[in-house]
Design a protein that fits this description.
alpha+beta; binds N-(quinolin-3-yl)acetamide; 15 helices; eight-stranded mixed beta sheet
Length: 445
């Protein structure tokens, strides 16, 4: 409908064309660079995944919220050098306003909590599933959008909130058939890094910057990390001290280094004891190198990873008790996580856990003669009113209709033919048993 009669060779392909129409006015049928279409089969998988997100949110007694994808740029201007704020999909709108396609959801959640102010009673447990955007230079073929499930708790200062969020993540994995031998969740606290900075009397204004750098642990070499840390003005002994602590994988070792009574250790011990009670202890492990790359985390942070180490983080999150004051409001303790739609699907593919995404329809209604198109409509309509999914087919040969019935996994084929209809009957074929029988049209259900 949208394409001119030009042959397919005339079609441009997203990566070559810089415009979206070629010399003959033929539109490029690909979506914009870094974005995806969701044709029916892909959309069925996405809908299935999002239904799992929703069901876990329901089990956890979270309420659904939603926001515009378009937000004021001011919500995302942060000075910590995060990748996410250096790749803002930002522009000036026709009213001269600086706006962005949001790169994450948390700031919108914070904005709504502030806006709702006194009219909401804490704690708040909100979730949303929304598309997020980034603008990467053309060089890297990475995607520019993905969908994220976000779960956030506002108004719970104690680690009970983190324990609840971890249960949500584990429930989701279990619903998808993923086990704790496929996936683990690394848990730490930014208070560990804060304690180390204090040990070296490093000014706290460097804290956020150091976190963003340390988050590249494992992606950059040790030397690169050291260089970036030194460039913030840290002494080499402080850099070595940070790297040494961040390599710790046992809470007791951490306690030895930081000393007992450190808040970070107490929080983590409490969280690990909660994990035992919830029954997900074998999913989580302490790993001091987890800091996550977002500037606003202030406490416990966590990320789920595939134990084979082939994929990027599956989801991640943490506590952000000071985000609201960066928007000029009173602080409210908060924590949450984001769960993207891409890595999880790669993991399910790897594990052979993708569900069967074929179509399923209850009935096909087919008039064998065009004079029966009216009766076929009333039959389809009455079946639909009884809750049957009905595909009304016409202008096709019967051979095609049988193939179509198989293709869409129809349960029944309802044939409306002249000789039967004269007697008020229709022919029903049960496709699984090939059983065939006549029934009075008004007794069909
Ligand atoms: C694997 C993947 O699609 N990642 C992805 C894709 N788009 C994004 C857009 C904004 C923020 C993070 C994003 C992350």
């Amino acid at each position: 409908r949208f394409l001119s009669s030009a042959s397919s060779s005339m079609l441009t392909h997203g990566d070559e064309a810089s415009t979206h129409v070629d010399a003959n006015g033929v539109v490029d049928v690909n979506p914009p660079r870094g974005t995806r279409d969701f044709p029916p089969e892909d959309m069925r998988l996405r809908t299935w995944l999002f239904d799992q997100f929703r069901e876990v949110s329901r089990l956890m007694a979270f309420e659904e919220v939603d926001f515009p994808v378009l937000e004021s740029e001011a919500l995302f201007i942060r000075k910590a050098g995060e990748e996410i704020t250096q790749q803002l999909y930002n522009f000036e709108d026709k009213g001269g306003r600086r706006v962005v396609l949001r790169p994450e959801i948390t700031p919108s959640l914070a904005r709504l909590v502030i806006k709702q102010g006194k009219s909401v009673s804490l704690p708040l447990k909100w979730f949303t599933i929304g598309q997020c955007w980034r603008y990467e230079r053309m060089t890297r073929g990475r995607r520019r959008e993905h969908y994220q499930w976000n779960m956030d708790i506002f108004g719970v200062p104690k680690v009970r909130a983190e324990a609840e969020l971890l249960q949500a993540i584990v429930l989701l994995f279990q619903r998808l058939g993923i086990t704790s031998s496929d996936v683990g969740i690394r848990v730490s606290s930014r208070k560990v890094l804060l304690a180390v900075l204090n040990m070296y009397s490093i000014p706290e204004h460097l804290f956020t910057q150091v976190c963003v750098i340390v988050d590249k642990f494992g992606k950059l070499t040790r030397e690169e990390i050291e260089k970036e840390l030194m460039s913030t003005g840290l002494s080499s002994e402080a850099v070595q001290g940070i790297i040494e602590v961040l390599s710790l994988k046992s809470l007791s070792k951490l306690e030895e280094v930081l000393g007992s009574g450190v808040e970070a250790v107490a929080d983590l011990k409490k969280l690990f004891s909660f994990a035992e009670q919830y029954g997900y202890a074998d999913w989580i492990c302490f790993d001091a190198s987890v800091v996550r790359g977002l500037a606003y985390y202030t406490g416990i942070v966590f990320e789920a990873f595939d134990r084979e180490g082939k994929l990027r983080a599956i989801c991640g999150g943490g506590r952000y008790d000071k985000l609201l004051s960066t928007f000029g409001s009173e602080d409210i303790p908060a924590c949450g996580f984001g769960f993207g739609d891409a890595v999880i699907v790669e993991l399910l593919k790897e594990k052979g856990l993708l569900p069967d995404m074929s179509r399923q329809i209850d009935d096909i209604v087919f008039p064998l003669d065009e004079v029966l198109e009216g009766p076929a409509s009333s039959i389809a309509s009455s079946l639909r009113k009884k809750g049957r999914a009905v595909d009304l087919v016409e202008d096709k040969r019967l051979k095609w209709v049988f193939k179509h019935a198989e293709r869409i996994n129809a349960s029944r084929l309802i044939l409306v033919g002249n000789s039967e209809w004269e007697r008020g009957m229709v022919r029903v074929k049960i496709l699984s048993t090939r059983e065939e029988y006549e029934v009075k049209a008004d007794e069909l259900d």
